[in-house]
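re: that chain from earlier
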Amino acid sequence: MAKIYSQIKSFWDSQPCGTAHINLPPHSEEYFIEFDKFFESFYPYYLPFLNLESMRDKRVLEIGLGSGFSLHRIAEVAAACYGLDLSGGTMALNQARDRHFKLGLNLVQASATNIPLADNSLDFVVSVGCLHHIPDIQKAVDEIHRVLKPNGIFKGMVYNRHSYRYHVYIPVARRFSAGWKGKTSQDCVNQMYDGSDNPYGMVYSRRQVAAMFRRFEITSFQTQNFVGEEVLPRYGYRIPRNVWLKTLGKIVGLDLYFSARARK
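^ sequence. v structure.
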């Protein structure tokens, strides 16, 4: 198990999530400004899902930081904002964001399977796009439950097992595309979602999420995100992304978003 965690850390150290999207020095103030514009435009449903106003004057932890878009927004409203990530490269990126914008972040390099915070100390935990990269995901979920106060809220996203990509595009690609023939479904998940060197990624159904979060009350599920070119190769990009997001993205989207309340 130590080997796979080392591989995961090395992968995200080499390319912190988001840095491939913006052609600017990643630690510069200009990078963060342009990245945030891109992120908010590309994921228009993200901030409504977070509901930042509900986090005002609360103690909030984010797990899996990427380039820090949501951590920045949380820090602007929360009484205390913590950011946790296994990757040193991601830590350095968010430290740079903190310096540029003076956010007062509490950044911790650690695994979500061993969160260095006290029991019942947080009002919210956010983890979008991270849990599906953790082999010991149940241990991470149990840690999230431990640090949340009674009735504390978790907001998260994992890759959707019942997406168009997983059920249609990947089987078709494995059968007919020279680049994907001979690869397993797991190979395709790892490489299509996060890059050719990604060592670990998983997809989850609503039922699986509910089982993992059995010590929580799931209060909402929603599917989001879609790549039109997977339906119409060479032509899908001509249809505005917002059309895909409002139609197939709501039904068979790539990502499964959910909110849950800690029962204690």
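The mean pLDDT is 96.
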